[in-house]
Design a protein that fits this description.
By secondary structure, this protein is an alpha/beta fold. It has 2 domains: about 240 residues, Zn peptidases (Aminopeptidase, 3-Layer(aba) Sandwich); about 110 residues, no CATH class. The strands form 2 sheets. Strands 1-2-6-3-7-10-8-9 form an 8-stranded mixed β-sheet, with helices on both faces. A two-stranded antiparallel ribbon has the order 4-5. Helix 9 links the parallel strand 8 and strand 9. Helix 1 packs across helix 11 and helix 4 packs antiparallel against helix 5.
Amino acid sequence: MSISLHDEALTIISHLAEIGSRRASSPQEATAAAFINGRLRRAGMGVTTHALAVSPRRRRLYAAVAAAGIIAALTAIFLPLPALTLALAATIILSLDAARGPLAQIGPRHASQSIVGTQAITGGAGLAPRSPRWRVVILAPLDSPTVATGLSILAGPARPAALARSFSLALVVLVALAELLSPHRGWVLFVVPAAILLTLQLAAALRGPQPAACDGNLGALATLVLAAQRLRTLDHVEIWAAAVGAISLDPGGIDELLRIYPFEPARTLIITLEQFNGEHLYYRINRRRGHQEIINLTNPTLAISADGRSRTEGVALIEPLRRSGMQTISVYGRSDFSTHKDIALRSEQAALLITAIVEQLEDGE
């Protein structure tokens, strides 16, 4: 007797849960990678493992910027010109980070990996291979999620933390400039709150995020495997399934994936999966036209709601893909806690959603 989609999802989730918390670059993450590798091969995919060397670029960058801001704040009264230069340099670095994403690697790197499976279209191999009409790339984080709580919120890329960093450095710049143009007027009083806020930011960056209360990425990985099992012998749509390592540490695995496989944006749809928590799943589509209709056709029967918010906090895969210009559909939950049965149900829904989307692309012109 064939196993149901829900039971298969629960089996995968239970096995991954037995591995334990998959911290980025940990042995547990490597064990999960081997498991996903085997399940994708069992689904008939060709599988490749790509080594990753990653580091918490953003956290280290924010720590360095906060330290520079503290030095500038403490010296603004005595050495206003060097303090002004240092604070302006830190501000420029933050601006580049916001515009272009995480900057160069800072400090030692950690070893991780990504597992990439491919399912070619019928007739896609041989002496005269056919080209696919579409490529659907399904992405899920290999590691367990983390969450910024309490003081650690100040060390993340979220808007409140970004405003706090910008405000602190801007205040230091103004104080240094005022002291340079009109010294000994008591400008030091204005630098005190900036120094306190920068110190809190430095402490938050050094502490780092903590593991999330519920590992919703178990459902994302289960959906990745379920979709690979269901999407076979397609004539026009090529399927890619990738479990990307160390996402909670550094989104560089996505950039590396896009570098190795330069997908054509016009004919590639990327579906990201993460944090399948809560009673409902939500989807978000990028601003490109052409896929809203597909979601609307499948949404009423699958009870997956559109997320009209423009924020991307907590959805780690979105930012690097948005910068790449790829057509992207993100599927995720929002709650802080779910049981394995709840996550399995969400995985079943997401797998059916992906199947419906691929069927639309397979049948379309």
